[in-house]
Amino acid sequence: MNVNAPGGTPGNREGIENAGVVKDVLQRRATVLVLSKSVPAATVAALAQRFEILDPTKPEDIDALVAAHGARIRGIATTGKAKLDRTLLERLPALEIVACYSAGLDNIDAEALAERGIVLTNSSAALAEEVADLAIALMVMARRRLVAADSHVRRGAWAEGAFPLGQSVRGARIGLLGLGHIGSGIARRGEVMGMHPRYCTRRPVAGCSYPYYPDARTLAADSDVFVVACPGGPSNRGLVDRSVIAALGRESTLINIARGEIVDEASLIEALTTGQLGSAGLDVFADEPHVPASLRELHNVVLTPHLGSATIETRDAMGASVVRSLLQALD
């Protein structure tokens, strides 16, 4: 920034004084570390208008930046993919807020942040409706077998015979494993479509009229469509195991728009292959972007490449939520 611009020519006393004020303001701007390179450039540019930005060009640069500036870093912008653990936090004594561009907080030590009173925000509210839309799309596509139907037309098989009947979603019981922003959005859409929501969370949601189930297996046993919409991380890894999948049954559909690690992928593939589970719609996988060939070859599953929030409008809103969180905390 040209520090002479606000106050006229360099020879003007008023201009010099104003330039000094601008310089002082710039020096007092809060310092924000961009911890993940996948934070969009537009978001970083918006932050740079109000903060001093430390934006490493590669992950290994973070250590040097923290060594040089860690004592004055007050905010972090991240996507949740970069690791933020106690070891790194100990080097950031002035940290006040971590603003996450995504909904997932898998690699962020939320407990350590809470112990120090550091604010942690994510963009779950900004992306919830978009992800809920995808969950419904996957559900309809899986139960109506729309991917296979598309192939049926393209390869000319329609002329040889009608496509097999699918399954309706109207009147179906939709079980939500998780009832946060995204799960609630899916439930609302399900109701409009004539479905009957029920849910499982760690404890009943106050004021919620949907039937509550204390664990994933009992929810699955009373669901025609089972939607995984809970957080990932170690505590939920493998939560949807072989017994949960078996409880769903041959006519049911499993949808996962949360995290791949939550579902026992091997058991899911086995159930889909043997017909123990009717169908599935998956936007997330255990080892992204590597999807097992045995899963890719199945015709009763719809696969998308983790694009729950991947629209221009929603990604812009997610970036805006990061900027807004940091401004509210630091500006």
Automatic annotation (TrEMBL):
Which InterPro entries does the entry mention? D-isomer_2-hydroxyacid_DH, D-isomer_2_OHA_DH_cat_dom, D-isomer_DH_NAD-bd, NAD(P)-bd_dom_sf
Does NADP count among this protein's keywords? Answer: yes
Protein name (database record): Lactate dehydrogenase
Species whose genome carries this gene: Bosea thiooxidans
> What GO terms are given for molecular function?
glyoxylate reductase (NADPH) activity; hydroxypyruvate reductase [NAD(P)H] activity; NAD binding
CDD domains reported for this sequence? HPPR
Q: Which family does it belong to?
A: Belongs to the D-isomer specific 2-hydroxyacid dehydrogenase family.
Q: Where is the D-isomer specific 2-hydroxyacid dehydrogenase catalytic domain?
A: 35-330
This protein's UniProt keywords: NAD, NADP, Oxidoreductase
The positions making up the signal sequence are none
GO CC, any one term: cytosol
Q: Which SUPFAM superfamilies match?
A: Formate/glycerate dehydrogenase catalytic domain-like (SSF52283), NAD(P)-binding Rossmann-fold domains (SSF51735)
Tell me the Pfam families matching this sequence.
2-Hacid_dh, 2-Hacid_dh_C
Out of the domains of life, which is the source? Bacteria
- Limits of the D-isomer specific 2-hydroxyacid dehydrogenase NAD-binding domain: 136-308
